[in-house]
Design a protein that fits this description.
single chain; alpha/beta; Rossmann fold; 8-stranded mixed β-sheet; 4-stranded mixed β-sheet; 8 helices; 14 strands; globular; binds aspartic acid
Length: about 260
């Protein structure tokens, strides 16, 4: 199959080749290779849902053509699944939403790739615990090596804990411990303080400084429009907006797009 061009997005996606997919999975599993795409936000100002990172998603998911979508961060699942299906259609990726699966654990075990969408991180994590999906997802990503994609709350899930989410604890999960697929925290939708603001509440930077008063794990403040792409021991910051890195005992550091694999060591 040649290059397709649907809805303005070009794709070199090859035909479904089960053998090729299986070989890739086996190879990744043997190498213990995780493959993650952690997006700050599904929406950025001026473009459609997931539009700003669609090329990165296409690359990340090759050669997978079906992805298991996890909509539990929002209360309404059908519409959310439809929104994601429409967004991924131009790159030739179809979705199966876990909320309609007969058995969510089996759905994870059979998935070729997983996408956890954004919304409220507390609600999402609570549901993952309730449905006993934490271990199966971890296993799928770390042992089977299937591609994981998260946006916003879904990105928070990949962190050791959800202690650096921006969300309100509208429900109470049994623990703040998340999937722990990476050795650092991410603060999605990171926003710089406005120097002219008269607002007296904490800035994002203040909140992350408070986190580091109580915790050691570094935090990547990922601005809207940025994402992290992890493959094995490589971690690349993509997008145009960069990130701010917060580490205990050192001033926050501005980081531009490029290789940030040092975050993994
Ligand atoms: N509420 C965010 C989201 O869109 C998550 C966060 O800001 O921590 O998923």
């Amino acid at each position: 199959m040649g290059r397709t061009d649907v809805g303005g997005v070009s794709s070199d996606r090859p035909p479904v080749n089960n053998l090729q997919t299986r070989h890739l999975k086996i190879l990744r599993a043997c190498l213990g290779m995780r493959k993650l795409l952690l997006i700050s936000s599904s929406r950025v100002h001026g473009s459609g849902f997931l539009e700003h990172c669609l090329v990165a998603i296409d690359e990340h998911l090759q050669p997978v053509e079906r992805i298991l979508f996890v909509p539990y961060a929002l209360a309404e699942h059908d519409q959310y699944a439809e929104l994601v299906a429409t967004a991924l259609h131009p790159i030739g990726v179809a979705i199966d939403s876990i909320h309609v699966a007969e058995n969510p654990v089996t759905a994870v075990k059979q998935a070729q790739a997983i996408f956890i969408g954004g919304g409220n991180s507390f609600r999402l994590l609570k549901t993952l615990y309730e449905l006993e999906l934490i271990e199966p997802i971890r296993e799928a990503v770390q042992s089977r090596g299937i591609p994981y994609m998260g946006s916003s709350a879904g990105t928070n899930m990949a962190c050791p804990t959800i202690r650096t989410t921006n969300d309100m604890p509208i429900v109470e999960p049994p623990s703040f411990e998340a999937l722990d697929l990476i050795p650092f925290q991410i603060n999605p939708h990171f926003v710089d303080a406005n120097p002219n603001s008269t607002h007296k509440g904490e800035t994002r930077e203040h909140r992350l400084a408070e986190y580091l008063e109580e915790n050691q794990t570094p935090v990547a403040g990922l601005r809207e429009g940025s994402w992290l792409k992890l493959e094995g021991d490589s971690c690349i910051l993509g997008g145009k907006t960069g990130m701010k890195l917060f580490r205990r005992g050192t001033p926050p550091e501005e980081v531009a797009a490029g290789d940030v694999s040092y975050l993994l060591s």
